[in-house]
Design brief:
about 400 residues; alpha/beta; Aspartate Aminotransferase, domain 1; Aspartate Aminotransferase, domain 2; 2 domains; 7-stranded mixed sheet; about 15% strand; binds 4'-deoxy-4'-aminopyridoxal-5'-phosphate; lyase; pyridoxal phosphate; EC 2.8.1.7; cysteine desulfurase
Amino acid sequence: MGKSLNTSRQDFPILEQLVNDEPLVYLDNAATTQKPQAVIDQIVSYYQHDNANVHRGVHTLAERATAQYEAARVKVQQFINAASSAEIVFTKGTTQSLNWIAGSFGPTVVQAGDEIVISYMEHHSNLVPWQQLAKKTGAKLRYIDLLPDGQLDLDAAKQVIGPRTKIVSLAHASNVLGVVNPVKTIAALVHVQGGYMVVDGAQAVPHMPVDVQALDADFYAFSGHKMLGPTGIGVLYGKQALLEQLSPVEYGGEMIDFVGLQESTFKELPWRLEGGTPNIAGAIGLGAAIDYLNQIGMTNIQAHEQALVAEALPALQAIDGLTIYGPQEASQRTGVIAFNLDNLHPHDLATALDMEGVAVRAGHHCAQPLMQWLNVAATARASFYLYNTSEDVQALVAAIQAAKEFFQNGTL
Ligand code: PMP
């Protein structure tokens, strides 16, 4: 303990700036999060004092770098309650983790005529790899429908998941609708059928306590940069017995035991899957991010975001002409709110908000099938994190109101 949410904002130097002469209100956390000084310092310190390649050298710096890299792996293991650090593989991020599962594990369990099940709310990185696997194997890619308010339709899931289902892959939390999916329930459904549960945790691990064993997820993917860590580092969690079945996607240095002219033998998990020099500073930075999150506590972070949504949602709902996607009850949502204002293009809306210093995203959010389901081309999206405040919520609401007046009357 020691850190509180009240003081956390001061730990993020980037937030202390003006954008277009207004204090920066950063609400694009679903895309990427800002870094506390502790994470920045840890990365700098590593390069200043300890930089060396891991696992190979016997010299002091190599041992220090290896110790820090492996300590980061244990932090990740404990953070998501994996049974062993051998179940934590460092990757570039969620996209790479999901591609490895679909590309390497997928073909070992999916055959022609089998079914792979996802939902309409998936991010492209939890959709396109499965499309590719379906194409290569002759399997069918099936979609679980959503309820009118955007929540996963559990009855539809029970219909779709059946004896042919080999893999179900779902977002734990949506990057657009702000809903949390009942992963544990779905995992039980697919396990009864002898299939595997893959989870895209990119929008969950940064925002709520996650226990991969309690969820009974077979694989779980997430990214460091969405949880205060650096870009270019992410995690593939897998149950050890399943990771053992995964062929490395990359062969080369760091992952071998013995190399002969025609045959090689490989290291044990998790190193067998981490070919080449890994993102050492990235992993160490992610470890520092986890330390920071732990000091505040994931339950506190979740409650804080919940309070921001409880404040933002009614205020946004009160703006005439503003459509909010996903459940209309704050208690059913995470800190992601996608919206459109009248017939305004969301890019124009986001540009107008930026004039007020408010950073939101506009576009399809890498979820084009979901946009089709919502019957829109794009949306604007505000997304909160632990350093956002009630003032940020008020600034968002005021900026949307100002944009509305500007586009209606030509005055800003
Ligand atoms: N899944 C979801 C739900 C996401 O929000 C994102 C990031 N927008 C990703 C996957 C992909 O993450 P990354 O780009 O870090 O690989």
